[in-house]
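LAB NOTEBOOK - FOLDING QUEUE
OPERATOR: T.R.
BATCH SIZE: 2
PURPOSE: Compare the predicted structure-token outputs for two unrelated chains run back to back under identical settings.
PRIORITY: normal
REVIEWER: second-year student, initials M.K.

ITEM 1
FIELD SEQUENCE / FIELD STRUCTURE:
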Amino acid sequence: MSEYHVPVLLKESVDGLDIQAGGRYVDLTFGGGGHSAEILRRMDGDARLMAFDQDEDVLGHVPEDGRLIFVNHNFRYFRNFMRYYGWEKADGILADLGVSSHEFDEAERGFSFRFDAALDMRMNQRGRLTAAEVLNRYDVGRLAAVFKEYGEVENARRLADAVVRGRAEGEIRTSGDFYRVIEACIPKMKEKKYLAKVYQALRIEVNGELDALKEMLEQAVEVLRPGGRLVVITYHSLEDRIVKNFLKAGNAEGREEKDVVFGHVARSFEVLNRKVIVPSDEEVARNPRARSAKLRIAKRLTMND
């Protein structure tokens, strides 16, 4: 399990679920199963866990445990699957939004610029859109928007122009093709940081990650019992901003809406950790990919809170 993916902030995140006897819990991002294994270890015999992952590669890591329901789908559909399995409410929901170590380390998945491999980047390998399709089919304006909005790339328009010029000479199919096309756009001495932003932008576009996150948060409001916990681990500013805003104001934009009678800000969650939780120096030393993780824990409010 540890070779496939090392779970981040394992104790802190599962502690945040506040697992109770007979509870119903949801792990939206199974990955290598580290968080799910710890949840199962802490559950009593009457408690149940439903876990989700859209990547078929994880199927070999799903344990045989009668308390676990595993669903091989994107978590943006988790409310529908809860209904399908007869779950009305959940007592806790956990989402670790990072890309698994396995996906980064398997060259043919195309998530990393470390390998000269096909530009795939699909978390759901049954999906149609790949990073190569984005680079070869999007017009220059749409490409620039992807790089700017999802990667916060400063020279997004110049980068998009380079892609369009480069693909005119031949389709961009591999990371090597891509690098040769955009090499002049990459700032000197900042190559890894720049490419990380560019690849992040492509990955988010291919997988619709931010839209899925927003849909998940909206569904969490509906399915969590009053007092139930929402535990989310983010890895970059775009997703963390969405989570922070939603927990504070009930929407991804952070727009505070007041009720017309009392003028109170309408909130669905109480944030339990006022200061964001980050990995210890010891954890980062063991698992460098944990260094950008941020953990937020919130409790579902009742109508009277």
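ITEM 2
FIELD SEQUENCE / FIELD STRUCTURE:
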Amino acid sequence: MLIQKDAVAAVTTFMYLVPPTTAIVAWLLLGETITLATLLGTALTALGVSLVVRPSRR
């Protein structure tokens, strides 16, 4: 849907959410430890994606 709306930049930014999502799923299903670095990386990634995806103020 996003590609059809010419939002290619938004589509590619969602690829950055794969590693944090994988870390969360590994924690839930496999009991892996989530470190401070993982939390900071996830927060930074989510912030970056939100800056790209949100509508502009024009």
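REVIEWER COMMENT (ITEM 2): The chain has a mean pLDDT of 84.
FOLLOW-UP: none requested
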